[in-house]
């Protein structure tokens, strides 16, 4: 519930006073809070804002205010009025360190008038975890800058992130004054006496842009710097909150203040949102996302171990995604797909591609390389999040800005990168132990942990496993090969038991850059995990968070010969000693002791079922009908419950036939039906799947099993001498960017190539591709021969190498040897007699696909 008003102090209004009547106001947190905020109005009408804790200043009064094209609201201000109320932010998250939240705050709104009657309100909120302020303008405006700043003691220890727009630099430990001159990204952590201050912002969307802090060497002042020179609002403007989380280290680490201040959830129904562990192959074997067989192996691994997701990263092929998705879902595993953000940077692309992805059965998308804090990019975030939510597609943002309450407003955001994670192939224990106190405080962090594939690391095996608990992420992408996990049986056993969302979390002990020990609860199990960047020692874990009675404590840690496990019986109030190796870690699972030797909960693999369809393939003209017969059964095992089976026609198609139901489907019993799929009169040319699906209930979730007839809607047969670049493509895939017609491959965008040129010879017609890739065109048996001049385009600046292959209905017809950059074009001919589908395939020359710009110059078919 958004901002539930509990109490209006007095009438909520204090009579206007002359500007000189009050030069400083205090806003105290709710009862029991030690945090206070002060707003000052100086003699020149300049505003300042500071934060204290327990009567001691933490952030000294610092300049605030903003400027627009119409007014300077940083000076010459006169106080008009103050309104105060108490609010409680009550809401439930789908991800995070604490799912159910109820946070009381005090809010005061201070109205000011500037030169020419310009008006601005400063709204302040204070909770037990810190204070924040924002500016409110009553009408549309163009903001040109802010005076907003924070002032810290120059000798205050600091843990800072040198700024880049994807937030992947290495954090540095310094002091507020000694930090290098330049820009720093959020969140920034400082220690002032016994208090800590974590500085960030909240509630950024397309109405504004993302800020950062900028610093002059030797100074304790950190000013806000906006991403854009100007920010335009189309109506009344409420800026993002400028946030200071203030308290002891446990308070700061456990804070939800950036979420508490963010706009309420835009989604009424979150039942479709499901966090969980993810098997991910790209980091450990970069080429694997292009390998259908390899992805099925990862799916089988995930199914065996109860991991609900597989992420197929850059390199997947649209021609087999529906197949791999059906394969996964039948085994209780959902598929996530990687995209470059430019795949969705226009409304037309979002309207076309996202429904297609959903029709494939994909559960969510990883979107990469946004790399900007501009207002335009935040407007894009608004658009893509609304579009994915409408289609029930969950989201992981990579190459992204840091979360600013995003996961409260859009609960289908499962995680965000914005961190120098394991995929940088350099892991340092000291850096890892800073992240729980900085980046991970403000939202899910896709670090992609638990890797043996990273050779350049100074962490132990137990440290790596512990990252899956210490680092919070709604989707935890476990980044090594599945064979590696199977080779570390004790690690895999622990990983298989770990939740990725938490009912509560708390810091047990630690300090940034040295050690972090956290305790997290899900249901009746606690998971205590520690990571260290110091020498071997014993961690003392006070168990005052446990309930009454006896508890079983199982600990995984580093042993002399690899990971080892130990257990003991403990009670609330005791202290559990845990040995920790230098740069090491541990994971302790605690559960109520019932006599069992383990806290492990059983894994429940999805039953093996079979689904068949007939025919396997069909050719259909627009408006025609394809009958499909399907059968579903459980060969062995306990009966399936709540089975429902029916056709699921693709967009634009219709299907008639039965809806088969069985409240209980015993082993050996077969459900069979026939459905008639009708193609639309204006059906798009190309292949299309006609699926029949069975769904059933299993362990509180729905399992989806489907198979499809692969139908082809062919275009008219080509006639005469035709350039392939002028024919419709049935399918196309490309190693980098889109396939180009009558121009070279160019860069990542469509239409960005140049003339097709090989060894100085230019071809006006042809296809510009990038290995590995394929293009399929319909011939319908009407053509006799194919010709082309094959070569690597002159636009490449490195040693490209390509093999060109021509196939007819899947059969090899012709190929070239390896052709390298700078070689003359190679003539390529093929006999096409009787061929229905022509495939042009380019593969790398055995040395990777860098610079493999594959030109099919003057590619031509001769037809009757």
The helicity comes to: 10-25%
pLDDT < 50 runs, ≥5 residues: 1-21
What average pLDDT do the residues reach? 95
Number of helices: 11
The radius of gyration computed from the alpha-carbon positions, rounded to a whole number of angstroms, is 30 Å
Q: What is the top-level CATH class of the domain at 4-261?
A: Mainly Beta
- Write down how many β-strands occur, each being a DSSP E stretch of 2 or more residues: 60
Q: Shape, please?
A: globular
| Secondary-structure content class | mainly beta
Q: So, CATH architecture of the domain at 4-261? A: Distorted Sandwich
Largest sheet: 14 strands, antiparallel
CATH topology of the domain at 4-261: Beta-galactosidase, Chain A, domain 5
Separation of termini?
70 Å
Beta-strand percentage? 35-45%
Summarize the structure.
The protein is mainly beta.
What would your notes on this structure say?
With 864 residues, the chain is mainly β. Among the domains are: 258 residues, Beta-galactosidase, Chain A, domain 5 (Distorted Sandwich); 104 residues, Immunoglobulin-like; 143 residues, NPCBM/NEW2 domain (Jelly Rolls). 11% of the residues lie in helices and 45% in strands. Strands 1, 8, 9, 10, 11, 13, 14, 15, 16, 17, 18, 19, 21 and 22 form a 14-stranded antiparallel beta sheet that branches. The chain has a 7-stranded parallel beta sheet with strand order 28-27-26-25-24-23-29. A 6-stranded antiparallel beta sheet has the order 30-31-32-37-34-35. A hairpin with a 7-residue loop joins strand 8 and strand 9.
């Amino acid at each position: 519930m958004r901002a539930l008003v509990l109490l209006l102090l007095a009438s909520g209004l204090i009579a206007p006073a002359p500007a000189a009547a009050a030069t400083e106001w205090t806003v105290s947190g709710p009862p029991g809070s030690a945090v206070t905020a002060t707003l000052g109005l100086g003699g020149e009408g300049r505003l300042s804002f500071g934060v204290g804790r327990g009567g001691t200043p933490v952030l000294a009064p610092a300049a605030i205010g903003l400027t627009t094209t119409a007014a300077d609201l940083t000076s010459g201000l006169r106080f008009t009025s103050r309104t105060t109320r108490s609010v409680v932010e009550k809401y439930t998250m789908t991800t995070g360190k604490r799912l159910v939240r109820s946070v009381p705050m005090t809010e005061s709104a201070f109205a000011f008038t500037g030169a020419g009657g310009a008006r601005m309100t400063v709204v302040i909120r204070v909770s037990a975890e810190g204070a924040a302020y924002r500016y409110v303008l009553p009408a549309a405006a163009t903001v040109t800058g802010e005076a907003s700043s924070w002032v810290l003691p120059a000798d205050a220890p600091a843990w800072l992130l040198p700024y880049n727009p994807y937030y992947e630099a290495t954090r540095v430990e310094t002091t507020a004054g000694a930090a290098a001159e330049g820009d720093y990204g959020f969140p920034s952590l400082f220690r002032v006496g016994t208090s800590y201050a974590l500085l960030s912002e909240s509630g950024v969307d397309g109405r504004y842009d993302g800020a950062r802090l900028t610093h002059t060497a030797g100074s304790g002042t950190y000013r806000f710097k906006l991403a854009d020179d100007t920010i335009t609002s189309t109506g009344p403007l409420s800026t993002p909150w400028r946030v200071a989380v203030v308290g002891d280290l446990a308070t700061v680490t456990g804070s939800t203040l950036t979420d508490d201040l963010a706009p309420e959830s835009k989604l009424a129904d979150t039942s479709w949102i499901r966090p969980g562990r993810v098997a991910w192959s790209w980091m450990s074997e970069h080429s694997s996302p292009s390998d259908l067989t390899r992805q099925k192996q990862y799916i089988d691994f995930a199914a065996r171990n109860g991991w609900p997701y597989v992420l197929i990263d850059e390199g997947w092929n649209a021609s087999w995604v529906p197949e791999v998705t059906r394969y996964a879902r039948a085994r209780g595993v959902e598929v996530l797909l990687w995209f470059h953000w430019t795949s969705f940077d226009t409304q037309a692309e979002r309207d076309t591609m996202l429904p297609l992805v959903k029709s494939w059965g994909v559960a969510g998308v990883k979107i990469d390389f946004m790399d900007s804090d501009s207002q335009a990019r935040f407007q894009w975030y608004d658009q893509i999040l609304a579009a994915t939510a409408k289609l029930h597609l969950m989201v992981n943002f990579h190459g992204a800005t840091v979360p600013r309450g995003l996961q409260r407003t859009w609960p289908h955001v499962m995680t965000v990168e914005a961190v120098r994670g394991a995929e940088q192939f350099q892991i340092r224990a000291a850096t890892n132990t800073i992240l729980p106190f900085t980046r991970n405080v403000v939202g899910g962090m896709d670090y992609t942990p638990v890797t043996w594939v990273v050779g350049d690391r100074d962490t132990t095996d137990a440290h790596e496993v512990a990252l899956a608990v210490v680092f919070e992420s709604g989707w935890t992408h476990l980044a090594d090969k599945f064979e590696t996990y199977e080779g570390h049986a004790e690690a895999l056993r622990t990983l298989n038991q770990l939740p990725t969302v938490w009912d509560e979390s708390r810091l047990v002990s630690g300090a940034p850059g040295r050690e972090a020990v956290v305790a997290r609860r899900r249901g009746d199990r606690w998971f205590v995990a520690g990571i260290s960047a110091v020498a071997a020692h014993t961690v003392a874990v006070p168990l005052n968070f446990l309930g009454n009675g006896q508890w079983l404590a199982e600990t995984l840690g580093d042993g002399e010969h690899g990971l080892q496990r130990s257990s003991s019986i403990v009670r609330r109030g005791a202290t559990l000693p845990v040995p920790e190796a230098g740069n090491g870690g541990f994971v302790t699972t605690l559960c109520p002791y019932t006599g069992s030797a383990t806290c492990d909960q059983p894994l429940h693999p999805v039953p093996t079922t079979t689904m068949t369809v007939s025919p396997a393939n069909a050719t259909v003209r627009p408006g025609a009908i394809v009958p499909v017969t399907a059968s579903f059964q459980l060969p062995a095992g306990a009966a399936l419950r709540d089975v429902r089976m029916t056709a699921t026609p693709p967009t634009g198609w219709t299907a008639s036939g039965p809806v088969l139901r069985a409240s209980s489907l015993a082993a050996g019993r077969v459900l069979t039906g026939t459905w008639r799929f009708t193609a639309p009169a204006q059906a798009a040319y190309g292949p299309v799947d006609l699926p029949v699906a069975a769904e059933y209930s299993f362990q509180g979730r729905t399992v989806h099993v489907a198979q499809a007839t692969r139908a082809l809607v062919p275009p008219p047969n080509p006639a005469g001498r035709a350039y392939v670049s002028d024919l419709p493509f049935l399918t196309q895939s490309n190693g980098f960017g889109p396939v180009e017609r009558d121009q070279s491959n160019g860069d990542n965008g469509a239409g960005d190539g140049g003339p097709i040129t090989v060894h100085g010879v230019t071809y006006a017609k042809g296809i510009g591709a990038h290995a590995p890739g394929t293009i399929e065109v319909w011939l319908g048996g009407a053509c006799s021969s194919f010709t082309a001049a094959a070569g690597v385009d002159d636009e490449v600046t490195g040693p490209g190498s390509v093999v060109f292959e021509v196939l007819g209905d899947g059969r090899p017809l012709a190929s070239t040897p390896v052709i390298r950059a700078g070689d003359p074009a190679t003539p390529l001919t093929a006999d096409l007699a009787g061929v229905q589908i022509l495939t042009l395939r380019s593969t790398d020359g055995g040395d990777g696909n860098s610079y493999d710009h594959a030109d099919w110059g003057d590619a031509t078919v001769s037809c009757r």
